[in-house]
Amino acid sequence: MWELTVLLLLVPSSGQAATVEKPVLSLHPPWTTIFKGEKVTLRCDGYHPLLLELRPISTLWYLGHLLLPSYKKSIEVHTPGVYRCQTRGAPVSDPIHLSVSNDWLILQVPYAAVFEGEPLVLRCRGWYDKIVYKLHYYHDGQPVRYFHSSANYTVPQARASDSGRYQCSGTMRVPVESAPMFSAKVAVTVQEARHAAAVRLLQVQSPCAPLRLGCGVHGPRARRRGAGIVLVRGGYNHPQRPETQPLAATPGPRFSAGLGVHHRPGPR
User: What's the pLDDT band for 53 if we cut at 50, 70, 90?
Assistant: First the structure.
């Protein structure tokens, strides 16, 4: 009776220690300024090593340099400050700055980076969602849009020139119509288009060998030589792309078979 023994091994193409991408920290709802007493949800999505473990992979949370007492993938927060997260074996995520306001009017901007060609959405919000009347949006001190009542200001295709400091003003009925109120100014940066940055990145990368697959199955006479499946990883070496990592080998005779995959984690 024929016997097939497979040794499964993830081999980094560079022969060096594997590197792992930063986890992606997201904010829900996606605004960096909230009113005092409100809560938002932070979620940490990261690359998890391909290891079989009995316990779940923990997530570490930081507020400034303080380690928070939670290991869940998502947490609710209401304290202002700089938040980061970290998954096992990965670097610390990029930060999210959360502000908490006691003002009557706040200007909310998205936490995620805005790239050229993408929409830029700003939200002028009254205290606990009171309607804002005679609403003005300002860019670097100059009025850019007027609304009769509460509405978002959207730049359909943002450009670098849309970067700057934004502010909004308006009135509210508390209970009668107030004098004009102004939000704090918020800095917004429109970054270079994603595809332009990707083209430059590819120009400095060195191609590796293409993907190759070989499979050998041997009968009883070849048991001493062993049988296995070989898959060699190919592609580009990205300085932050997660490389493959070793897995535990299946017990048995000495085999030289290996398996490597071009792997990129999913979640922004």
Answer: low
